[in-house]
Amino acid sequence: MTTGLIVVAAVLLASSAFALWRRRTDGRLREINVTQGAQSDAEQRGEILRAEQLGRELGSQATLVQFSSAFCQPCRATKVILTAVAESTEGVRHIEIDAESHLDLVREVGIMRTPTTLILDGEGRITARATGVPRKDQVLAAIGRTLP
What we know:
alpha+beta
């Protein structure tokens, strides 16, 4: 009986800790160190994305790449935010990619869940990444850091 209570308490503690961690990190944009210079090395590591890989032209200043799936509710909210940012910011394009239909690209850039947002600079380098629904002000700030 005592062992069962200890196991239940441990499971509740672990799940509560995970939930708090997930709540704190979900949707937060993390900056990626942009390496200048060796373009081909960065491309091989999946740090640079090209229009051919994404199926659409990149934005001249920045591109917001959103990996989504069909039944993902947070993906819809992310799409609304990223579309609004792209429409209100000159030179910024939003590209939504169905993760299930582009598994090679998903593996290449390390997408583990949807929605995942990548912010690319004008040359296609990944400068920031968020899993979950990012905040609009964070997206705008990340775009501002990509501008020359």
